[in-house]
């Protein structure tokens, strides 16, 4: 897939966000002369990740409604209730993709972890189902375990995730 560089992004920050070794990003982008200098709008190849435009699914998250909407070619497939970040640890807004997944990550992350292309953030299950519908997380999106497992069965890595108020 192609990532378009945003302000303050570096190859190092992108390697963290996409969970790739820096050397892998450098190798995938041979036209970069100086890996310490990127410019806003620069296209960066992210290897081994499907381009979101090739995937019919899209996830739209509403922080204020506390819903995750799964779409297939713009048709709503399902709307799930979620928990979001609290005031001091708000869920980040923006455009992301699912970069990888981990079943049964343990602890408060429930039955599945879907990593977003922003380090430390993901969509995951929970060991506290009473938190769904509330602003209680450290910024991640929490779902009921059965819901996150269903979502993970449907959407591949590379699926676009839009988070807005």
Automatic annotation (TrEMBL):
SUPFAM superfamilies: L,D-transpeptidase catalytic domain-like (SSF141523), LysM domain (SSF54106). Residues 57-164 form the L,D-TPase catalytic domain. The active site is at residues 124, 140. Residues 1-46 form the LysM domain. Gene3D superfamilies: L,D-transpeptidase catalytic domain-like, LysM domain. Keywords: Cell shape, Cell wall biogenesis/degradation, Glycosyltransferase, Hydrolase, Peptidoglycan synthesis, Transferase. The keyword Glycosyltransferase applies. One of its GO terms (biological process) is peptidoglycan-protein cross-linking. Pfam families: LysM (PF01476), YkuD (PF03734). PANTHER family: L,D-TRANSPEPTIDASE, L,D-TRANSPEPTIDASE ERFK_SRFK-RELATED. Belongs to the YkuD family. This is L,D-transpeptidase.
């Amino acid at each position: 897939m192609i990532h378009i560089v945003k302000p303050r992004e570096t190859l190092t920050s992108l390697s963290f966000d996409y969970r790739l070794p820096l050397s892998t990003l450098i190798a995938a982008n041979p036209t970069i002369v100086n890996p310490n200098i990127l410019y806003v709008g620069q296209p960066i190849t992210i290897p081994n990740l499907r381009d979101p435009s090739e995937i019919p699914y899209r996830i739209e998250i509403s922080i204020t409604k506390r819903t995750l909407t799964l779409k297939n070619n713009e048709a709503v497939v399902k709307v799930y209730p979620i928990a979001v970040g609290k005031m001091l640890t708000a869920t980040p807004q923006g455009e992301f993709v699912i970069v990888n997944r981990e079943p049964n990550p343990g602890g408060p992350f429930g039955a599945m972890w879907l990593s977003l292309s922003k380090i430390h953030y993901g969509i995951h299950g929970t060991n506290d189902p009473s938190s769904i519908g509330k602003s209680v997380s450290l910024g991640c999106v929490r779902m009921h375990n059965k819901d996150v497992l269903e979502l993970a069965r449907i959407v591949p890595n590379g699926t676009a995730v839009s988070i807005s108020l």
